[in-house]
Every structure is written in structure tokens, then in C-alpha cells.
Amino acid sequence: MSKKDKELTGKQKAALLLISLGPEVSASVYKHLSEEEIERLTLEISSVKKVESNVKEEIIEEFHNIALAQDYITQGGIGYAKTVLEKALGSDQAQAILNRLTSSLQVRPFDFARKADPAQIFNFIQNEHPQTIALILSYLEPGQAGVILSSLPQEVQADIAKRIAVMDSTSPEVISEIESVLERKLSSTVTQDYTETGGVDAVVEVLSGVDRQTEKTILDALEIQDPELAEEIKKRMFVFEDIVTLDNRSIQRVIRDCENEDLLLSLKVSSDEVKDIIFRNMSQRMADTFKEEMEIMGPVRLRDVEDAQSRIVAVIRRLEDAGEIIIARGGGDDVIV
Description:
The chain has about 325 residues and is an all-alpha fold. It contains 19 helices and two strands. Helix 2 crosses helix 5 (about 55-90). The longest helix has about 35 residues, at about 55-90. The protein is flat and about 75 Å long. Mean pLDDT is about 75; it is low at about 1-5, about 185-195 and about 330-335.
């Protein structure tokens, strides 16, 4: 790479590349860009007077290498891409290309594992320390993690769920070490700074992918170990807007068991979709009355609305625990009892 080329910015290189590729190809590229990106590139292209042949060749070669690297990553992950590029271009140039590419791709640790079958991952990690399992699950897709968590012994499920929930950040060295065990072809971690993962949101996503019995087992155990954490997870697992996922019989039962005042407050700021499905499951007279009262209600405090929605969600959770309604989840064909 020439000294002059090294001094070019990414925007300048992109402009020179499009000039080199010609108007037809450039027009096709523009279709995939935002208006702001098109404007910036067009201004940059308009300022170019001449493209030196050696600079043109180097930019096209760089683009070609980056495109190849991205294809290699798609095929077999960072480790595979690094191996192939090192053989073709040498260690320094391969690392430089991967650094540029992965910084833009923001490839997360355990990327290769997210393409793997959950059963294969389970066979590999089932005997690992719970903290190691929790770390790996927190990086997987929620559906994968849910299948694996459901397959683990019941006596460790709650412990692992709790570890995911309270997990904050993990050093790249630890991540790299675990990655190398799980996938020995991966030579080093892509992310060089501390990576945040886990948390209550992560465990909620994982539990949303498990079957009802596994979820109940884990939450029951967490209620004993950490009641506050269990309650926080329950609150986030089903929010008021999720009422649209219930069938008509379940919604009708919820309406009967909830206070009208709570329903009025909740519907006041709800989406049209939520309002429509609630009104459809009321009698015409009740729906008309609700609509009239909502019109004359006036402004409401957000805190009051949130409290009302929390009470409705609590009713839904109670009805589900009692087997009166069933919330559809992964891992089973749920039906209304």
C-alpha cells in the first residue's frame, strides 16, 4: 500500500472505488445507502479530479481483500478467515484487514457458536462450571440458550439463570480462554475491550425460550434464593402490551378478573392494537362505556398508568400459575385449559 493511499480516509477510498467501478455499478451501490451516505459520497466524488492508476489498483485490491475476508467469516468464523488470509497475504496484512473489517462488523464473541446446533453446544458445555455455562449462554441467541438451559439438570438451572441475570462485564482474556476451549480454531477474541453481557434482560430472553415447566422450576428456585430478582424477572417476562399475544378466551378472563379502573388507565395510553383486541372481547355496551369514560378522563399520570398495568400483569401471571390461562412459549404447544 502506498504512502499516499494510507493517508486516504475511508470516505475518500469509497469515492475512488465507486469512480473506478463505473456509473452502473455505483448506481447499484447507491440503492443500498442512506440519503446522508449518498450525499456525502457524491460530494466526495465531485471533488475528485483524477484517479492515479496505482491508487485505483490498490483501493480495488483492498476492497477485494475485505470482501473475501467477510465471505470467509461467513463461511467459518474469524479463525477460519484469519487462517486463509494469512496464507494468501501474510500475517500482518491479514490482521490489518480483519481489524478494519471486524471493527465495522462489531463481531461479538462466540459468533461461531450462534451458528451451531444447541444440542452440540449442550454436549460440549454440560459439565463445565455454572459460571462458564452462564457466560456462553448469555452470548448465544435466546432460542439456543433456552434449549440448552432446558436440557441442563434442574438443580443447576436456577443457579445458571441467576448468574446470567447478575452478570455485568467479562474481561476479553477470560472470554478468549473460554472461546478457545469451545472453538479451538479461534485464535483470539475479536473484541479488545470489556464486553457487557448478561443482566436481567438477558435471562428474561433465555427464559422466554424454555418450556413452561423449566421456567417454573427456575423461578420457584430463584424465589427462594433471591425473591427480588425473581420478581423483577417475572415483571419483565410479560408486559401489558403482550396481552395481544393471548387468545380471546384468555383476554375475556383477564377482563373479568381486573378492576375496571385499571383497565381504563391502561387503555388510555395503549396502542390501537391493544385497544382493539380488548374492546373486541368486551360486550358492546361495556366497550362503549369504556370509550366514553376514556374521552372524559383527561390527562393521567404515567406512574398511575404503570401501576395499573403492573396490576393487570399480576392478574395474568396469577391466572397462568393457577392454570386458568396459558401464555404461549417456546418448547411446547400451549392450549387454553
